[in-house]
Amino acid sequence: MNHDLTPARLSPRDVIRVGGAGLRARPTRVVLSALGIAIGIAAMIAVVGISSSGRAELDRQLDRLGTDLLTVSPGKDLFGDEATLPEDAPEMIERIGPVTNASAIGNVDANVYRSDLIPEQASGGIATYAVDLDLPETVGASLADGVWLNAATERYPAVVLGADTADRLGIHRAGADVQILIGGEWFTVAGILDPVPLAPELDTAALVGWPAAQELLDFDGSPTTVYTRSDDASVDAVRSVLAATANPAAPNEVDVSRPSDALAARAAADQAFTGLLVGLGAVALLVGGVGVANTMVISVLERRGEIGLRRALGATRGHIRAQFLTESLLLALVGGAAGVLLGVAATAMYAAIQAWPTLVPLWASVGGLGATVIVGVVAGLYPAARAARLSPTEALAAP
Question: Which of 42, 54, 135, 358 could cross-link 339 (Cys pair, CB 3.0–4.6 Å)?
């Protein structure tokens, strides 16, 4: 009688079932080992997701505010001293064809105080600016409370506070009964601005009308910054002629910038920081992989009797190797899947708190699971090979 001595082949389904049974036999150890993987993957997913959500909010913000805002400010003269802009610079800039809005502010040498009991030396870092009436439209500013200056109030002691200025002064509303001291004169708080992302210098300032600044605060009328809006397609062309237009006699003494570039630079810095945090997440993932390898090595030592019995019943070295490699892979995948879910949940929670759109790139989730596969395979290779090398007699004889 002929006997077929060819060893039985295990189907992928059987391999997964056997590997899963090995994990279910040690639930506590499996959970602790998978937790290490989950923490590493969750950290990477959350960092990438929060960074992507922040950039999505920045893009949304730039779409709303526009990237067509340019600022003109005085630079340095040939001797390195502070230059000044001509008083007619805003009017000259408005004559540029593609320019749709031009609005100026001028620095006023006047300290701002909540009351007359505060020492004059304590300025609080609050600047005072004379402003044009169309400033909010040009820079995209909005009011948190009160009203903006108008043709009547710009000539009287009325002031609009930046968001940070209001906080520093402890003022949370505008009104006829709310006054502050500017340069020795009492000004009524007409309004409070929301934060202005493209003109953050306004957040820490007190804004008064141009005529009132000249009459009450000895303002010399020289603009400090001119904000301009132009057609999107013409921004670069306008940028190239702004300096010569603002100060034809000395265009080299004029600085021209685009505030949205600063926001983009901040996003680039955030992206670099994100890369560092992803690296830390990768270290955590590596530590989790070491935990998986340790779990599998101990599992091999504890289950030598099981390995010997399976070998005695006909299991080949390949069967044993596949079983333990599958256990390692499943263990890593469980941790990876949990990590992806935790990372997405953390991103969604943080984005909701910040009122950002939630964005987790697909590549991050797929890459996280792919990393767990690699960790599972690498962590399981040695334990699987060690289990496969055990002979039936040696395994059965082990205590």
Answer: 42
